Amino acid sequence: TVCYFSCQKLCSLAAASILLYTAPSFVVILSAVLWKEPVTGKKLLALGLTLLGCACVCGVFSGGLSVTIPGVLLGLGSGFFYALYSIFGRYALAHYPPLTVTVWTFLFAGPASLVLIRPAELAGTFGGNPGLWGTALALAVFSTAIPYLLYTWGLARTEPGKASILASLEPVAATLTGVLAFGETLGPLTALGILCVLAGVIILR
User: Could you tell me the CA-to-CA distances from 195 to 30, 34, 52, 53, 169 in Å, in that order?
Assistant: First the structure.
């Protein structure tokens, strides 16, 4: 997360987003090295389609893309560290159920994130706007805890590489939510990206 937001300061948002979605590539490579998970043609095709689709959805080909070498390295770092959840998750799931793995993940991640908090700024923000507590709770439950629990549950039932590629549906879901809930425009390139991601997911079935 630190790498991802640092990348956003040095590169355009589209570049930061697509670099984050290199995570499935890292998972496929690490899974092949660590557990000899087969890298099939079908998996490579699905990986290529989902990566292309994410690039289209994130706006990589729409112009205005700006990158720097430190930003690219940070973006690749965000993808690599994001991929490690799938790798470490597989080790943990060999001994514990998905709920246990998720709970312990957050028990460690929560206190570790406290080093990034500015107490005075946080108190001022929440003190001046009590309604933020509901938003923060919703983000914690519906945008963090439940998605990680569902992903870990899926990780326990399929190969890490396949699970990570399937998770590329995230930008598609975000885009469709923007269209349906906020009236955002769905351009032809974005629509093509959605079709590419869906095709990749269907190939992996």
Answer: 27, 32, 10, 7, 11
